[in-house]
Amino acid sequence: MAWLRACGPDDLQEGEALRIETLPPIALFRVGGEFFATDDTCTHALSSLSEDGYLSGEEVECGFHFAKFCVRDGRALSLPASKPLTTFAVKIGDDGVHIDVGERPYRQMR
Asked: Which of 84, 89, 106, 107 is at a distance of 20 to 30 A from 2, taking alpha carbons?
């Protein structure tokens, strides 16, 4: 495991997303007071879900072709996407929100 501090616990507001600069990037979502992390790139086309997507409840919709995914488990919920997003473990500590980025190279967050 390689835990990366993504942000402070209050830096990401309810219903917002944050792009984490790993390679490839990860999206961090705050929904219902919980944090979820998935691949940031839509599995149908190369669109950033955190920057170009629309978050509604536990679903994020791609801004390019309107594919939807569940941020909780990465499932593809509508076409044109059929492949799920990879999800990542998230933990909350006193010093912030951490994502297990595994072997992905990353730029250290502040």
From this structure: 84
Instruction: Say whether pLDDT at 5 is over 80.
Output: yes
Concatenating the DSSP letter of every residue in 8-38 gives: -TTTS-TT-EEEE-BSS-EEEEEETTEEEEE
Would you put residue 66 in left (φ > 0), alpha (ψ -120 to 50) or beta?
A: left
Classify 93 as helix, strand or coil.
Answer: strand
The CATH T-level fold of domain 3-100 is: Rieske Iron-sulfur Protein (2.102.10)
Nearest by Cα to 109 from 13, 25, 14: 25
pTM of the model: 0.93
pLDDT tens, residue by residue, 22-56: 999 999 999 999 999 999 999 998 899 999 999 99
Cis ω for the linkage preceding 9 (within 30 of 0):
no
> What are the extents of the domains in the chain?
3-100
